[in-house]
Amino acid sequence: MEPAAVELIGSMIIRQARSNLAYSRMTDFIEGDPEALLVVEVIADSEPELMAKLERLEARVKREGMGYAMPRLIKPADQRRCGMCGKPGWV
Fold it and tell me: Where does the source fall among the domains of life (predicted)?
């Protein structure tokens, strides 16, 4: 599985977003109080192919012990919210 994009979002950005009224609504997909988020974009030609890729990615992350939550942001609106995280000057 080759990701289309990978982005690391640090705890400082997460904390600032959560404390900012305008952006706090965009962080509801974040579970707990993570030190960082690793956002992985996956592209597929069909929904079954996408789900299979996500299953493989999640299994690998769990096997490596690298996370406790792996929300799947499938809807374009959810993806846009998450995409705001990495924009310069986001908060």
Answer: Eukaryota
Number of Cβ atoms within 10 Å of the Cβ of 79: 12
DSSP for 2-71, written as a single string: --SEEEEEEHHHHHHHHHSHHHHGGGTT--S--SEEEEEE---SSHHHHHHHHHHHHHHHHHHT--S---
**Cα within 13 Å of Cα(58), Cβ side:** 11
